[in-house]
Specification:
With about 230 residues, the chain is of the alpha/beta class. It has nine helices and six strands. It starts with 5 loop residues before the first helix and ends with a strand. One of its GO terms (biological process) is glycoside metabolic process.
Length: about 230
């Protein structure tokens, strides 16, 4: 994901569902979120350090202990070859079956997921999955580091308008909320509106999936990449 808290807004309920079933999850944040928050009393390096700690605390709420940061500048991410290589490196290190990324497409139905950093990270991550991580001759420096090629079986795109899969997260909703509240520098000012907003948004996604009234769901576009 691009920033600390992106994974918790979009995916934390699904992550809790997976870790409950014994699936190992690793987080990779491209930036430290140094351009976020509302406190002029903090320097940008101090904000970055705070947001890293908030993300680690949020991850623990949903059963994730491995959180990694690439340290790219918040608000200035581009889908460069360097970013593709850095993401491919982590894919080869972790060797995941599934990679969850922000959609690289602009969502005109709901603009908020379409932050330029999100789209840039989605584009670079999709290229890192295919073809970079699986091609032993892409980025030879990775092979020199002892990182052999790895093929990801599927990519789940979050935040897009082309949805083909939903995850019922009703039973994990409280943990998702705890994870989001851990990002106090970003969410504390929202108060009870945060839960109200999420229930409306996730309830609408559950209804679109045909789930019973009162259920909550996160939505994705699943792309087979094996």
């Amino acid at each position: 994901m691009a920033h600390p808290d992106d994974v918790d807004f979009g995916v934390a309920g699904s992550v809790a569902n997976w870790t409950d079933r014994g699936i190992e999850v690793v987080y990779l944040m491209v930036t430290d979120g140094d351009a976020g928050g509302f406190d002029d009393g903090l320097t940008r390096p101090e904000m970055a350090a705070l947001r890293r700690e908030e993300q680690r605390a949020a991850a623990k709420c949903v059963g994730v202990g491995d959180v990694r940061f690439l340290g790219y500048p918040d608000g200035r991410v581009e889908a460069t070859l360097d970013l593709r290589r850095d993401i491919a490196r982590v894919i080869r290190q972790v060797r995941p079956d599934r990679v969850v990324i922000p959609t690289p497409e602009r969502n005109y139905e709901r603009i908020y997921p379409s932050h330029p950093d999100h789209r840039a990270v989605g584009s670079a991550a999709l290229d890192a999955v295919y073809p970079d991580a699986r091609n032993p001759y892409a980025f030879p420096e990775l092979r020199a580091e002892g990182l052999e090629a790895w093929t990801v079986r599927e990519v789940w795109l979050s935040g897009g308008s082309s949805v083909n899969h939903h995850v019922d997260i009703t039973d994990q909703f409280d943990r998702k909320m705890n994870a989001l509240r851990a990002h106090a520098s970003q969410t504390a000012h929202m108060g009870d509106e945060l839960q109200k907003m999420l229930r409306g948004w996730l309830g609408a996604q559950a209804a679109a999936a045909g789930l019973p009234e009162g259920r909550l769901a996160e939505s994705f576009q699943v792309v087979e990449t094996a």
